[in-house]
Task: structure prediction
Amino acid sequence: MYFTTINSFSLSLDVMKKIIFLLCFSGVFVACTSDPKTDINSDSTLDSAGTQNTNVDTFTIDSAGVKRTYYDCAVLNRSIPADSMQSTIRKDLAQLIHCGIDSFDFLYVVPNLFPGFVSENHVAGRKVSYGDFVKHVNEFKSTEAYDQLHMRVTTLDSLRSTKFDHSKLYTMKPTLGKLGFTEPEWDMFSGFANSYPVPKGGKFTWGDMLEAFDKYKPR
Result:
């Protein structure tokens, strides 16, 4: 069911991909309704040297030119420390948002992929760097599982800004199907939505309806 919450990723990429295919509404909805904790100005990728961002932020300094801003990506060459150094790890991971990790991946991929990656390598006695982790993320981004994750998060984000309309319930079935609704779940949701007392004041969105249904559904 699409309501199963992702708590952790397995040590193998194959198992991790299977888990992400089961990405739930509730887990993604919470993530979508939370603002990023870090200001992201642009997506970035690793250059061939692995130490400098190639898709850099820019800002206009006058009408005649644009100044490029480069980030210090020395963190990519830094070895990932032991789990006991959580404070250091958090600071290091925050630096990756300008050095190979974009805003979407920082919010939805890194928190789930990083623990398994570190555990697997530390148990095997391998010394790995943050650059190795970025490469691991990029490997995952080439999979169908990542495309599925991206589609579901994007779909939920759009539903959060679309006003709910009873008359369009059945035309929305394909859109909601992108979230992984099974036919029985869709029947349950449509019945719930048709009888739900939508507030008359303010803007009540499809995202609000999905959140209300998540609280209602049988556990």
User: Anything to note?
Assistant: Residues 56 and 219 are 46 Å apart (CA to CA). The radius of gyration is 21 Å. The chain is about 45% helix and 5% strand.
